[in-house]
Design goal:
This protein is an alpha/beta fold and about 160 residues long. It contains 3 helices and 7 strands. It has helices at about 15-25, 75-80, 95-110, and strands spanning about 1-10, 40-45, 55-65, 85-90, 115-120, 145-150, 160.
């Protein structure tokens, strides 16, 4: 079975935990509680095929705390990671600038390809903002960008690109 370690990084209160919980079908968190260090969520996808063989894969989503006080741990978190999802709150202008730092540390300095990075513009429930693409500076503007708006009711939740 294949194994992939994916890091969820980004500024504090950007929605990393909400997105990680949604993807792994973990329980929702009722109130905001900052992630301390890292939280590892595991799930299996048996439907992935390789060379016409149904091998499946195990994934580890590493929900990394966005507080800079954990910066000394980042190198250890990055070890053997396959990809990075940078989550930012699209409604907070300062998050765009911070996203550049996360990209530099977790993608460029680790020599990951841009295809191994996904930007997620998270819109918090009730924000009323649209899904217009934010003004991203180079090199962020060449990355794949998806919008998320995850509500309490999963049937109405969605991802779009």
């Amino acid at each position: 079975m294949l194994k992939a370690k994916i890091l969820f990084v980004g500024p504090c209160e950007s929605g990393k935990t909400v997105c990680a919980n949604f993807l792994t079908k973990s329980s929702d968190i009722a109130k905001y509680n900052p992630t301390q260090g890292v939280r590892i969520l595991e799930f299996e996808n048996p439907y992935v095929t390789s060379n016409n063989k149904g091998t499946g894969y195990d994934s580890e989503l590493w929900d990394c705390g966005g507080d800079p006080k954990f910066k000394s741990c980042w190198l250890a978190l990055m070890k053997n990671s396959y990809g990075v999802v940078i989550v930012f709150n699209a409604d907070i202008p300062s998050h765009l600038k911070e996203t550049e730092m996360w990209y530099s540390c977790f993608v460029q300095q680790q020599f990951l390809q841009d295809t191994q990075c996904l930007l997620t513009a998270h819109h918090k429930q009730g924000s009323g903002s649209d899904k217009a693409n934010p003004a991203l500076a180079p090199p962020l503007n060449k990355l794949k960008l998806v919008h998320s708006n995850l509500k309490d009711d999963r049937k109405r939740s969605g991802w779009s690109s």
